[in-house]
């Protein structure tokens, strides 16, 4: 099924899957652990918010470092620092020690744009021998791997927390992060980009008329999508308060959402028109919001959670739209910018969901998403359609060459 993937893409996909298993063990119960170590609700918010802030701050610098020194040279340390952060979380004697540990874990977010930048080079180098290994298919397969790892591990993590304690869950998860880091190191270093092909530098990148309109509108789209994200505040609370669903049922719907993201990543990633696939993913979110508002039955809510899976694949699809439009030596910074916009939009949407849910009411987050999504996606579509064809990729060598 994945025979179109080369060695490097296979190892990275495995690494993402293992990381998903490790993170899934505790991602839904991390607040309970922080509370157990003596933190108040405000302190819990500070610790978790700091992790998002670190991601927002580092995306652009690490993108530049990836362009300067090569994405693999920077992404491997990101895996290592993230693993060290998880070990630190497991060993923390009280909540104050979680602050540097979660900062380290937040820095592992640098691996996401760097992995995409790395794979964009791999696809170019292996274009002749693996013509079906398109960037869109590779980056969405990576995303699918992470969500496959997240399907069963949350339930296992909850059971382990009850059986042997929350701290032990983090200790066990560290094993999976070590395996994930090892898998990432099995990728090969790439030959340096020929700088004479990118003499225009970043000034030429920022002069592209489509760039800022796309980043601005898609940032609003990500914020609207976050209002209805199943991992956010509004959907689970809405299903409990308005539809009367028990937490166990909602948990099952969460696993269904993870399955949907994995399958949707593979399905939409195969499209030869990634802009259409991105628009379809956002349309699925829009439809999922509508189903949540009108449906009372569990089957309808389950269908909504399936459609909301579009939110988990939208960023990968957008990467596959915009990355081919810029030169290789600019892609790290471009992906860093997109990562920052995604983090800022997601944080804003997550933060707005609670106040909107309280006033004017539980339906408000989904109504806002229904209004904002079509407008922002339409503007983003128009900007990208008017930007012309993607930049021509450098002619690949007869055979891919890597440095060990």
Descriptive notes:
This protein has 404 residues and is mainly α. It folds into two domains: 7-181, MFS general substrate transporter like domains (Growth Hormone, Chain: A), CATH 1.20.1250.20; 208-390, MFS general substrate transporter like domains (Growth Hormone, Chain: A). The protein has helices at 7-24, 30-36, 41-69, 71-91, 98-107, 111-125, 135-149, 153-164, 166-185, 201-206, 211-227, 234-241, 247-269, 274-294, 298-307, 310-322, 331-358, 364-385. Helix 14 (274-294) packs antiparallel against helix 16 (310-322). The chain is globular and about 55 Å long. The model is unreliable at 196-200 and 391-399 (pLDDT under 50).
Give a quick rundown of the structure.
This protein has helices spanning 7-24, 30-36, 41-69, 71-91, 98-107, 111-125, 135-149, 153-164, 166-185, 201-206, 211-227, 234-241, 247-269, 274-294, 298-307, 310-322, 331-358, 364-385.
The CATH architecture classification of the largest domain is: Up-down Bundle
Oligomer: single chain
Which class of secondary structure composition applies to the elements? mainly alpha
CATH class of the largest domain: Mainly Alpha
**Could you report the average pLDDT, rounded to the nearest whole number?**
85
N-to-C span: 28 Å
How are the secondary structure elements laid out?
Layout: H1 7-24, H2 30-36, H3 41-69, H4 71-91, H5 98-107, H6 111-125, H7 135-149, H8 153-164, H9 166-185, H10 201-206, H11 211-227, H12 234-241, H13 247-269, H14 274-294, H15 298-307, H16 310-322, H17 331-358, H18 364-385
Helix pairs in contact: 1-7, 1-9, 3-4, 3-5, 3-17, 4-5, 4-6, 4-9, 6-17, 7-13, 7-16, 8-9, 11-17, 11-18, 13-15, 13-16, 14-15, 14-16, 14-18
């Amino acid at each position: 099924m994945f025979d179109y993937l080369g060695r490097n893409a296979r190892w990275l996909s495995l690494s993402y899957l293992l990381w998903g298993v490790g993170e899934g063990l505790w991602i839904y119960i991390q607040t309970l652990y922080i509370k157990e170590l003596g933190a108040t609700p405000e302190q819990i918010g500070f610790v978790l918010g700091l992790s998002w802030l670190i991601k927002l701050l580092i995306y652009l610098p690490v993108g530049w470092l990836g362009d300067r020194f090569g994405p693999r040279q920077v992404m491997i340390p990101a895996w290592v620092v993230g693993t060290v952060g998880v070990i630190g979380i497991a060993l923390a004697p009280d909540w104050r020690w979680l602050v540097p540990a979660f900062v380290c874990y937040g820095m592992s977010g640098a691996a996401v744009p760097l992995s995409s930048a790395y794979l964009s080079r791999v696809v170019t180098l292996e274009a002749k021998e693996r013509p079906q290994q398109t960037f869109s298919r590779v980056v969405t397969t990576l995303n699918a791997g992470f969500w496959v790892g997240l399907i069963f591990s949350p339930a296992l993590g909850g059971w382990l927390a009850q059986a042997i304690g929350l701290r032990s869950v983090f200790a066990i998860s560290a094993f999976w992060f070590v395996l994930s880091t090892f898998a990432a190191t099995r990728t090969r270093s790439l030959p340096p980009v020929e700088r004479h092909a990118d003499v225009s530098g970043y000034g030429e990148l920022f002069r592209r008329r489509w760039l800022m309109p796309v980043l601005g509108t898609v940032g609003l789209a990500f914020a609207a999508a976050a209002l209805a994200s199943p991992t956010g505040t509004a959907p689970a609370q809405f299903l409990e308060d308005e539809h009367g669903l028990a937490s166990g049922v909602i948990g099952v719907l969460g696993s269904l959402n993870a399955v949907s993201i994995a399958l949707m990543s593979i399905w939409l990633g195969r499209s030869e028109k990634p802009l259409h696939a991105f628009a379809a993913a956002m349309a699925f979110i829009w439809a999922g919001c509508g189903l949540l508002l009108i449906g009372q039955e569990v089957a309808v809510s389950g269908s909504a959670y399936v459609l909301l899976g579009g939110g988990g694949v939208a960023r990968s699809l957008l990467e596959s739209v915009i990355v081919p439009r810029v030169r290789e030596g600019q892609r790290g910074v471009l992906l860093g910018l997109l990562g920052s916009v995604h983090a800022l939009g997601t944080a804003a949407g997550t933060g707005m969901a609670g106040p909107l849910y309280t006033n004017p009411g539980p339906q408000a987050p989904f109504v806002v998403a229904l209004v904002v999504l079509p407008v922002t996606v339409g503007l983003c579509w128009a900007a990208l359609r008017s930007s012309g064809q993607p930049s021509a990729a450098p002619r690949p060598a007869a055979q891919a060459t890597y440095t060990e």
